[in-house]
Structures are given as C-alpha cells and as structure tokens.
Write a structure and sequence with these properties.
Helices cover about 45% and strands about 10% of the residues. It contains 25 helices and 17 strands. Strands 3-4-5-2-1-6-7-8-9 form a nine-stranded mixed β-sheet, with helices on both faces. It has a six-stranded parallel β-sheet with strand order 14-11-10-15-16-17, with helices on both faces. The longest helix has about 35 residues.
Length: about 700
C-alpha cells in the first residue's frame, strides 16, 4: 500500500451501521427529525437536512421520518405524496390527528435517499393558536406577541408535532404488543428554535421520548453580529435578556433557551458556535455535530480536473464579453476568485475581501503585472434588470465569433476548391476584401468609451449599496491598469442566466479559489462545497468549517485550505494576511495549482456524511440512554477511534516549520503547464523529486 496518506482510513464512520434499518427494527427504535426547512428551502439548514437524508435512510430505513410545515409551492416539486401502510403506527397517528381536524400530508421527499416525510398544514390548526399560547404561558411563562407571525406559526407547528408524537407513542405501544416486539424507543431531533417548540411541549408534558436539540446559529448571535459589535471578545459581557429585549426578540430567545435546557442532549454544528451557545444560551453543547455533504466520488482522479477545465472555459466566455474593448489580459494567466452567500456584508466578510483585493491589486501591479485576477462577488440583492452594457458586450462578442466562424468556413471551402485544381491558393484568394470588411465592422463594434461595468445588473439604490460603496472607496474600477478586475453579480447563478449560462456548482468548479473571510459563520457550506469539488478556499478561524479543518489537518494551507485569523489579530492585520494568501496563490504555477486541487479533493472524505453522520448517531444514542436506561449501544467505542484521526502534512510539501507561510507546493518543471493534465500520487511524487524513503 502506498505510504502516502490520501483517504480517511478508519472504522469511525457510519458504514458499519448502514443496514437500511435492520438494527432499528430489531431494537424497535424510531427516529424523527424536525425542521422548519424539511422540504422547504429557506436557508442553510435545508442543505443540511437534504444532504444528510441519504445516509439517514441508509442507516435507519423506514424507521426514520422527517417532520416539517406544509408549503404548497415546495411540495409540488419536491414531495411525492402517498400514504403509509395501514398497519404502520405512523399511519395510525396520522389518522388520529386528521380526526381532530388537522390537515396532514404524508409521502416521500424526492431527494437522495427518498426519506419518509410528514408535513403539517399550519392553517388547519390556526384556530387553536390562543389555546396553544395559553398552554405555553402556563407551562413556561413565555408570552408571544400577537403580531409575530413567524413565531405564531412555529407555535402551531410545535403543538401539532407534539400531539402527533404523543399519538404515535400510543399507536406504537399497541403495535408492539400485537407483534411481540421489544420495548419501543423513540428519539426526536429538533433543528433550531422554530422546531424547538415541539420539544418544549413534550418535555413539559413529561412524555418519555428522547430529545436532541441542535442549534445551527444562535438567534441572538445573528442579531448582535449584524449590529457591528465586537462579538467574540465580548461574549461573556453581554446582558443576554437586555440585548434580546432591545431587538424585540425576547420571546424567541426564551423559546430557544428553553429548548436548549429542556432537551436531553444539546448539540451545535461547530466549536465556535458551541462557545457562543455557552455564553448566550447558558449551556455547553454535549456533542459537536459538524455539517457534511453527500459526496459523490469520481472513479478517476483526473475527472474533476477535466470538469474544472470545461467550466473554466465557460467563465472565459463571460470574461471576453464583459471586458470587451478593454480585453488586454491573457486568459491563460487569469485567475478567477469568488465570494458568495447571503447578502450580509460584514458577517460574510465582503468588506475584508474588497479591501484585500485593493491591496492585492497593488502587489500585482508592482510584482506580477502579467497576472490578472477576476474577482466575482455573488450576493443576491434588489435589482431592476440586467445592465445594458453587460448584455451589449456579450452580443458584440457573439457577433464577432459568428462572423469569424463564417469566414473560416468560407476560407476552408475556397482552399479546398483551389487545391482540388492542383495549386496552392494565394492570401488574396483566401481572405477576400468582403471578409476583411465584415471583420473590421465587428472590430469597430468592439470599441467602447467607458470602462467595463462593475455590476452585471442595475442595483436598486446603488449609491447606498455596501458592496458598490466599498468598491468605490477602494477605487477598483476595472481600468486598463488594474490587475484585479471586479464583477458584482447581485443574484444567484442558474443555467438559464443569459450572461453565464452556468449553475452555481459549475461556476465553483470553473474558479480557482473561493474566498470566504466571514466574521460570523457557524459552519460555512460555501468553503465545504469548494473542498469536495477540489477547489482551494479561504476561510477564517471564526467559521465552523475553519475550526473543524484546523482540528482535522496538520497543515491546512498545504491542502488548499487557507485560514485567515479574524479572532486574535486586528482587522488590518487580517486584511493583510488575506491579501498575502491571495498573492501567494497568484504566484503559483499552473502545475502547482493542479497538485493543490488534487490535495484539496482528497479532503472530501472528511466532509462526507458517511463520516460526519456518526456524531448525529452518538447524540441520538446519548439521548436514548437518558430516557431508556436499559438501552445499550453495542458499538460504543467508535467515537474514540474517530477523534484520534488527523490528516498529516502531505509528504510533497516543503519541510518548513508548521507556522511558516511558504507551504505551497514546490515549483513546476518546464513543459508541464497543461491545465487538463491530471496528477496521481506517484506522478506527483516524481514531479516533486520525492523518493520512497520520505
């Protein structure tokens, strides 16, 4: 076996538990997952639930079911409605609630794994809202303003789900007695405060159901960070009740905190969010449950490199059209960087990114004038329509391409006919005056008076837009002298987009580096998605993803994970660190980037739900043991094995100290700069001059 460490080799994953529910059936163990975003795309939790559905069904089979609100628009495209078998206790509970007047939709979610799902129509129980609120006040002393529609909906959903679980527990008891199964065990996991109402009701009614509460970001934390506070240095100083009251979210905060303290097991998605929850929610998480992705491996290592080359060519097409008239740079020496996410200017680190781009521009002008960086900022915001200048650029570029294609065909035809007569054609016979005129007209159409646009759309109230204001302040105007070009695309990408013609995944594959210098990022799916696609990324030590990678990898930078320090140094130093990271990346040769992409892709196993799902399993087991003391997990030592795993520094990295900046791959040799090349481990070792003794 090759001594090089490239894949996670450990028993500490879910593979040995993926039995399609046989173990759950033997133990009569039922698992429910409750989330506002089950089959209802709102934010990042939707990605968590959707991507995890495959391993959840592979592990638990028909003994796993999702709960969420019924949203008709989503259900039409995402859910196949069907009933459970008549002898299934789930169907018994559904029928019992329908007899009470509740509208309940059952079926299968049309995602990988095809999990069972039950959706509750909130409107069908709205007439009981006052009764639910009174019960909540009597049991918890939590009052909810009448006009807070979101919280009202969460309360209705919570009581509907708690009523369902109580009814299901009764039906399961009958089902167990009739079939002679062992004692029934039920565990329910609740995501975020909207789902937490059901947990509160179950616990205050003292129902014997094991409960797990997972917070992906604290409610108060989001509000505090949005207010430009020095959040992490003052976490222990905030008066949480006062701060929640100021922001008129005290009732929501109380619901979140009640769920946190009433659950049997409390989890967060990262160490940094656990630290936040400890101070704001006043409970330290029992387990950290990192977010994963449903990773689909390629059979050959070069396949994802080929996908990068294909997607990059499509971005080249956009660049040619957007920068027409000022297209003075070499695409072979052009790097594509991007930042994307919700439009939270400070939280997502867009301010730091733009400022560091200005400093990178200075470095490139003085030291690498032949390298160009095109930086894309993808944040959805209000727009009127596409920028006319952007559309015109792509139109004239297409016209030039079509004209030259026609001229090429005509030249080929004339050359063939002349050669058929037994002589070589002259240059005047090949390229006629008419062809020259056609091409000249296209060339004149390519002239432009102004600079290439910064934004692809007409942004509403652009003078107050934070991204555009910051770009103006940093004077990144896409002039002919700028080595850093900026493109602000204020909507999410899709394959129907007339400018790019790429969906988000293709766009990410075509870029060279994702930059996410977030200040508040409980996990960070954007850099995680880059990693599983083999694209290096920049993250921070204030993001869950960055903290996770620091724990799992000895030298993240040599694996293409650049971690900016936004916690222990000043803002100006963080900006300098980011600009230096990007400048070091720009100095790398094409072969070095290929090697680095191969290394980055090797980390995808770390982010696979088949590995990370084990933490969710551990949380459920602990909750079950808290409610059912006789329950024994037969494989209790798997987490010890998991925690001992750490990716070492790659053998091909230069043997410099761990904290040194110069940990990028060694320089390339001549004649090896083809982007389409693939590099397997043995070739990489030969390229870098490593022998078997290393």
């Amino acid at each position: 076996m090759n001594r090089r460490f490239s894949r996670a080799e450990s028993k500490s994953d879910l593979l040995e538990f993926l039995d399609r529910g046989h173990s759950a059936n033997r133990e009569n163990r039922w698992t429910f997952e409750v989330a506002w975003e089950a089959a209802n795309k709102v934010g990042g939790i939707y990605t968590v639930i959707r991507s995890k559905a495959f391993v959840s069904t592979e592990e638990l089979g028909e003994f796993y079911c999702l709960f969420g609100p019924y949203k008709e628009l989503s259900v039409r495209t995402e859910v196949e409605e069907c009933e459970f078998p008549h002898d299934n206790p789930l169907q018994g509970a559904v029928n019992a609630l329908r007899s009470q007047g509740y509208k309940i939709h059952t079926g299968r979610w049309l995602v990988d794994g095809n999990p069972q799902i039950i959706l509750f129509d909130i409107g069908s129980a709205a007439w009981k809202l006052d009764q639910f609120k009174k019960d909540l006040w009597d049991s918890c002393n939590i009052g909810v303003p009448h006009l807070d529609i979101e919280t009202n909906d969460a309360i209705i959903l919570g009581y509907m789900i708690s009523d369902f679980l109580i009814e299901f527990k009764r039906c399961l008891g009958q089902y167990t007695e009739e079939n002679g199964y062992g004692p029934p065990r039920i565990v329910a996991q609740f995501h975020e405060w909207q789902a937490g109402v059901a947990l509160i009701v179950l616990r205050t009614r003292q129902i014997d159901i094991a409960t797990v509460f997972t917070t992906h970001a604290t409610l108060l934390g989001r509000y505090l960070c949005a207010g430009n506070t020095d959040f992490y240095n003052n976490l222990d100083k905030f008066s949480v009740d006062e701060e929640a009251g100021k922001r008129q979210i005290y009732h929501r905060y109380c619901l979140e905190r009640a769920a946190t303290h009433l659950c049997h097991v409390f989890t967060t998605v990262s160490e940094i969010t656990g630290y936040e929850a400890e101070h704001l929610l006043k409970r330290k998480p029992d387990i950290i449950t990192p977010n994963g992705l449903n990773v689909k491996k390629f059979s050959a290592i070069h396949e994802f490199q080929n996908l990068h080359a294909v997607a990059k060519e499509k971005i080249h097409e956009f660049t040619r059209g957007h920068f027409y008239g000022h297209f003075d740079f070499d695409l072979d020496k052009t790097l594509y960087l991007f930042i994307a996410g919700r439009y939270e200017f400070g939280n997502k680190g867009a301010d730091v990114f733009i400022e560091s781009l200005a400093r990178l521009n200075h470095h490139l002008k003085s030291q690498l004038p032949d390298v160009t960086v095109v930086a894309f900022l993808i944040f959805p915001t209000k727009t009127n329509n596409f920028n006319v200048e952007s559309l015109r650029g792509h139109a004239v570029t297409k016209q030039l391409r079509d004209t030259i294609s026609n001229v090429q065909q005509e030249i080929g035809r004339r050359m063939f006919d002349t050669c058929l007569n037994g002589r070589l054609p002259s240059s005047s016979e090949l390229l006629t005056k008419e062809d020259v005129v056609k091409v000249k007209r296209c060339l004149y159409a390519l002239q432009r008076d102004g600079l290439p646009p910064i934004t692809t759309h007409n942004v509403v109230d652009d003078w107050n837009d934070p991204v555009l204001s910051s770009i103006r302040r940093c004077k990144l105007f896409n002039t002919i002298h700028d080595r850093v070009k900026v493109v602000f695309h204020p909507e999410f990408l899709s394959s129907t987009n007339p400018l790019f013609g790429l969906d988000y995944e293709e766009f990410v594959r075509g870029c060279h580096l994702g930059v996410f210098p977030s200040y508040y990022e409980p996990w960070g799916y954007t850099p995680a998605e880059c990693t599983v696609m083999g694209i290096p990324s920049v993250t921070t030590n204030l993001s869950g993803f960055g903290c996770f990678m620091e724990q799992q990898i000895d030298d993240p930078k040599s694996y293409g994970i650049y971690i900016v320090d936004r916690r222990y140094i000043g803002l100006d130093d963080s900006i300098n660190q980011l600009s230096n990271f990007m400048f070091d990346f720009a100095k790398m040769s094409r072969r070095q980037r290929i090697i680095q992409r191969n290394r980055t892709e090797r980390l995808s196993d770390l982010l696979d739900w088949r590995n990370l799902g084990i933490y969710y399993r551990d949380a459920r087991i602990k909750a079950l043991q808290a409610v059912y003391p006789d329950y024994v997990d037969e494989n209790g030592d798997y987490l010890l094995q998991r925690n001992s795993l750490k990716y070492p520094r790659p053998l091909s990295a230069p043997p410099s100290p761990r904290n040194s900046r110069h940990t990028t791959p060694a320089a390339s040799i001549h004649g090896s700069d083809s982007e389409e090349d693939s590099i397997d481990e043995e070739l990489e070792r030969q390229e870098l001059g490593l022998n078997d003794n290393h």
